[in-house]
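User: Before I run my own analysis I want an independent prediction to cross-check against. Here's the chain; please return only the structure tokens and, at the end, one sentence I can use as a sanity check.
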Amino acid sequence: MIATSRQRRAQLRTITRNVREQRRAVKRMARAVVAPVRVQLLAAGVDAATARRFAPAFSRGLVRAATGTTVIKLAGRRTKRVDVKLYDRSRFVARLADYRPAKDVHAARVFAAAAARLAA
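Assistant: Structure tokens:
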């Protein structure tokens, strides 16, 4: 139960951030041929926290299609350009069909549901 209005506002901000992140990922996948694994997981219907947590392990067996660059924010006003591995849709769908996290039952169910959604 949400005890205070401060906690209620924090939960609403979190929900709003997750929904916006998911919508951005869906829009990006509609116009992009290649994208990072985390974006593709979000577009497939995996929640933001699970996508962030399992993206490195998910992409470990994939062969990247291209490499892009993005800007990350460092402490203060500093930024840095970093390389991003991009994967194509067909390899992503094939990997999603057989990838299931072994130690997290909830995440395994989420990945199975996303795979079923993409297969249909």
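Sanity check: The longest strand covers residues 79-88.
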